[in-house]
Design the sequence.
């Protein structure tokens, strides 16, 4: 299935990827080729088949509701690119 | 070249032999670490199998057999990049469960191994830090995505290692580097602290020179973990295999997994010889069929895995850790996310994020992701039917031997096809063991041994018996003295 330039821009936007203008054509071409290949799944009539979301037949795993130590603030911020006063600093929300 | 520090020949030493040396007091754990570090210094510059080699402080002094971990395995205080520039400089503040279990077992950490970025690839060429080369032939790839973890074992730069396997990322590089690799039953090894790619498929698995070493390392890492609610207790303890025959074993040969287009003649011959050998060892061999699993498996995988990846990789936003784009004060939070992610991710993760996002987007969900989940059910059912008649199934692990670097880089679909034989069982959550079964054109061929969920002990038994009978020499000739 061929996807359009608008599809690429839409998907890039949904995925929060700033795709440069000069890359759009190449991405469009590659995604179209891959989607054509994976679209093969639609050849099968599976209307009566239940979907599988994960491979083990396990339902719920319960855990005791016991408090445990969490990450101290300085460790939680240890890898932050721009920490300030114990917070993650970010640009204004648009 | 093969005799390293303190007379320890790291090219040939198995983890079991190393443990024996330690138990008898013939070498110390520190001497073992020193021997592997010397081997790394001598041979890793041309292979680039390690992304990070630890110092004494971070190796730890647990007194055991040292290990290397794939760089998606979170290690406290030791850089963990997932092969991505977006995590360059990230130093975790906690240990993954498998890293903690290795520590508890006393295994010093030699370092972190190279991989395809976020474990997405089949050649380790997608690493953001440059490719790893195959120890058998440095013009060829080691496979992927755990290419570094396979190469370090093959080149004597670690006695054993851990990788992760989503679509074949332990089994396929094990095959291409002539070592043994296990993809365990999904849910038997904790994913806590594993950089997530596709959560319903990701699984940590051991690589080593022998099946017994793989079994031992699986025993150290497997079992329920309170930090990963998808893990389960093993139904039976891990058994180190000893038997050298296969009497009473029913071996199935799935036609499609052995005859799909693209299997090289040399690969087919070695695998057929291994199947005949299984018969000589007492197994009953019969043909079986997985018609839709092989035909539709790849398409199913390349919808499910990217869909899950698109969600898992949403966390890389330049806020809490990792790369952050410099907006020069011009742009809002969304602009920061979008530029950070475009700059930080390499081509393959971006491709898969967009593919997965598309497959999950309004209007396409049912046709793509929903349909792929149903195909997954069909694959599970086909394998379950095959295992009514057979204890294990055999096939090649990879359709080809190691291919030249650069061969498939420009063609994502050609690269995806290299996993055509490992993906179908993975979709069903099945364990698989790859053992070397000979050479084709001077390069290793891997035999894939598949069983039902939780059949690891059977896989070890079959792999061990075949390994003993095959007598494969795991030392790459170009490295042998």
Sequence:
């Amino acid at each position: 299935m061929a996807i359009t330039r608008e599809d690429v821009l839409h998907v890039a936007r949904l995925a929060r990827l700033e795709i440069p203008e000069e890359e759009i054509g190449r991405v469009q071409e590659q995604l179209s080729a891959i989607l054509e290949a994976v679209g093969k799944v639609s050849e099968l009539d599976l209307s009566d088949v239940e979907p599988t979301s994960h491979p083990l037949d396990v339902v719920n795993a319960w855990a005791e509701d016991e408090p445990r130590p969490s990450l101290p603030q300085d460790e939680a911020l240890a890898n932050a690119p721009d920490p300030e006063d114990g917070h993650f600093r970010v640009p204004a929300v648009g | 070249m093969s005799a390293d520090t303190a007379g320890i020949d790291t090219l040939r030493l198995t983890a079991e032999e190393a443990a024996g040396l330690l138990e008898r007091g013939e070498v110390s754990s520190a001497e073992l670490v020193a021997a592997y570090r010397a081997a790394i210094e001598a041979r890793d510059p041309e292979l680039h199998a390690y992304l990070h080699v630890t110092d004494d402080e971070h190796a730890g002094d647990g007194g055991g057999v040292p290990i290397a971990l794939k760089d998606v395995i979170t290690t406290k205080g030791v850089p963990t990049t997932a092969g991505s520039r977006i995590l360059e400089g990230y130093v975790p503040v906690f240990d993954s469960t498998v890293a903690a279990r290795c520590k508890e077992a006393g295994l010093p950490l030699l370092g972190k191994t190279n991989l395809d970025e976020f474990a997405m690839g089949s050649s380790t060429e997608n690493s953001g830090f440059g490719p790893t080369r195959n120890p058998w032939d440095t013009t060829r790839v080691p496979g992927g995505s755990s290419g570094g973890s396979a190469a370090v074992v093959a080149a004597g730069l670690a006695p054993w290692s851990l990788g992760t396997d989503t679509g074949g990322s332990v089994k396929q590089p094990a095959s291409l580097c002539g070592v043994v690799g296990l993809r365990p039953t999904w849910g038997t090894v904790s994913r806590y602290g594993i950089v997530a790619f596709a959560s319903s498929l990701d699984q940590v698995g051991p690589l080593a020179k022998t099946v017994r070493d793989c079994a031992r390392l699986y025993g150290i890492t497997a079992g329920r973990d309170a930090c990963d609610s998808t893990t389960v207790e093993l139904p039976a303890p891990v058994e180190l295999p000893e038997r050298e025959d296969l009497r009473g074993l029913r071996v199935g040969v799935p036609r499609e997994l052995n005859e799909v287009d693209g299997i090289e003649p040399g690969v087919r011959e070695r695998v057929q010889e291994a199947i005949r050998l299984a018969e000589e060892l007492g197994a009953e061999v019969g043909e079986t069929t997985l018609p839709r699993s092989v035909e539709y498996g790849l398409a199913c995988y390349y919808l499910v895995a990217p869909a899950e990846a698109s969600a898992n990789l949403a966390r890389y936003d330049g806020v809490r850790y990792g790369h952050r784009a410099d907006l020069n004060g011009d742009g809002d939070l969304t602009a920061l996310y979008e530029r950070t992610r475009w700059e930080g991710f390499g081509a393959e993760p971006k491709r898969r994020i967009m593919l997965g996002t598309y497959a999950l987007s309004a209007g396409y969900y049912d046709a793509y992701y929903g349909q792929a989940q149903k195909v997954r059910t069909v694959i599970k059912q086909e394998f379950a039917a095959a295992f009514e008649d057979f204890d294990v199934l055999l096939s090649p692990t990879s359709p080809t031997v190691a291919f030249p670097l650069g061969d498939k880089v420009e063609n994502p679909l050609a690269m995806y096809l290299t996993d055509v034989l490992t993906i179908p069982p993975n979709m069903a959550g099945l364990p698989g063991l790859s053992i070397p079964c000979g050479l084709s054109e001077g390069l290793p061929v891997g035999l894939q041994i598949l069983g039902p969920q939780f059949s690891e002990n059977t896989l070890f038994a079959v792999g061990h018996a075949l390994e003993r009978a095959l007598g494969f020499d795991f030392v790459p000739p170009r490295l042998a003295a």
